[in-house]
């Protein structure tokens, strides 16, 4: 039985790790600029057409569709209906809480009730899916095998990696202002800095280095080498892949003090308000407790790996059950074909 993971975003480490765990092929199908609403009327039909071509060529038995956008899951559902396959949904935070996709919750519920299983990223989102009366599991942390990475030149002093996408829910201005008061700390901010507003970019302090988009081996080398990794969000109910990468690579974490992040990143982590004063105190604490935080982040990784195993066991069980039912139906069909016709002569 073959499985395909479908995503309508450009490279996302979580999708790679899920595909690796399920022994699935992965297709990231994305045209145009992510987040550009003006391109959506052209982009989504084009991505649906490309997705359909991929599915027709590979003919997988199970499709795991990443949501949002909901149209990726809808295409997987239509394929499963047409060709007797099945589909599952990996629903990210934006599918439940973003303004952009709030309208699609009813459609999500419709699809989730027909899917093998829906994967939620945290308990609060799992509770939403539970009210829909469908099968679900929670998989937040996604462990995997990471490369050693390229050695990143850091030099002396305390170094912090700031994992960024610059897509709107990150307090970049607050990081800049806090760094101005932490001149003994060097910050390495990843991501495409061309997305930073020119006015803000002009105010960047000298101790923030914008790395730009890096090859993954170089990114891994940076996170392995720094004293702490900072991943922030202004949006509640959001789990951060950058935080999970920091945990996997053994880097102490500085992150926003939202309840869901306090629940998941419960060890080896400094939780801070998204304020200048909060970030300053958080970095100072990371400096003071560096060795303890590094030991605790390893303990956290072990705990999250156990949670991941439980969640993925549910996904794999759902696939096995479908495989068994599929085999039974095939066996029944073959028995009907091989059975000799009923002879009514002589009656």
Task: Please characterize this protein's 3D structure.
This protein is of the alpha/beta class and 347 residues long. It folds into two domains: 136 residues, Glycogen Phosphorylase B (Rossmann fold), CATH 3.40.50.2000; 143 residues, Glycogen Phosphorylase B (Rossmann fold). Helices cover 48% and strands 16% of the residues. It contains 13 helices and twelve strands. Strands 2-1-3-4-5-6 form a six-stranded parallel beta sheet, with helices on both faces. Strand 5, helix 6 and strand 6 form a beta-alpha-beta unit.
Can you give me a brief rundown of this structure?
The chain has helices spanning 13-22, 40-58, 70-83, 93-97, 105-112, 123-131, 172-180, 198-202, 216-225, 241-248, 259-264, 276-288, 290-338, and strands spanning 3-7, 25-28, 62-67, 86-91, 118-120, 136-138, 158-162, 185-190, 208-212, 228-231, 253-256, 269-272. The chain has 347 residues and is an alpha/beta fold.
Name the features.
347 residues, alpha/beta, Rossmann fold, 2 domains, 6-stranded parallel beta sheet
């Amino acid at each position: 039985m073959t499985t395909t993971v479908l995503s309508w975003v450009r490279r996302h480490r979580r999708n790679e790790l899920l595909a690796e765990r399920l022994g699935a092929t992965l297709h990231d199908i994305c045209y145009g600029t992510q987040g550009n609403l003006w391109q959506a009327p052209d982009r989504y039909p084009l991505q649906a057409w490309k997705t359909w071509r991929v599915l027709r060529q590979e003919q997988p038995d199970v499709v795991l569709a990443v949501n949002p956008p909901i149209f990726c899951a809808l295409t997987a559902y239509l394929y499963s209906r047409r060709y007797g396959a099945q589909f599952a949904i990996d629903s990210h935070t934006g599918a439940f809480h973003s303004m952009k996709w709030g309208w699609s919750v009813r459609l999500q519920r419709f699809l989730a009730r027909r899917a093998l299983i829906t994967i939620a990223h945290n308990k609060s989102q799992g509770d939403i899916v539970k009210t829909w009366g469908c099968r679900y599991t929670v998989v937040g942390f996604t462990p995997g095998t990471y490369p050693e990475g390229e050695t990143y030149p850091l030099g002396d002093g305390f170094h912090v990696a700031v994992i960024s996408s610059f897509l709107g829910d990150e307090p970049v201005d607050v990081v800049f202002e806090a760094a101005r008061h932490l001149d003994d700390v060097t910050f390495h901010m990843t991501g495409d800095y061309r997305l930073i507003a020119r006015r803000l970019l002009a105010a960047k302090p000298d101790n923030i280095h914008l790395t730009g988009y890096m090859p993954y081996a170089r990114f891994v080398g940076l996170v392995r080498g720094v004293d702490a990794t900072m991943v922030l969000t202004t949006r509640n109910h959001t789990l951060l892949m950058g935080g999970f990468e920091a945990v996997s690579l053994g880097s102490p974490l500085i992150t926003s003090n939202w309840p869901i992040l306090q629940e998941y990143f419960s060890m080896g982590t400094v939780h801070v308000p998204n304020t200048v004063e909060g970030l300053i105190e958080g970095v100072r604490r990371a400096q003071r407790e560096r060795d303890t935080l590094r030991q605790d982040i390893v303990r956290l990784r072990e705990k999250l790996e156990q949670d991941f195993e439980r969640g993925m066991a549910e996904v794999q069980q759902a696939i096995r059950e479908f495989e068994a039912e599929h085999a039974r139906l095939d066996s029944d069909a073959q028995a009907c074909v091989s059975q000799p016709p009923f002879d009514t002569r002589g009656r």
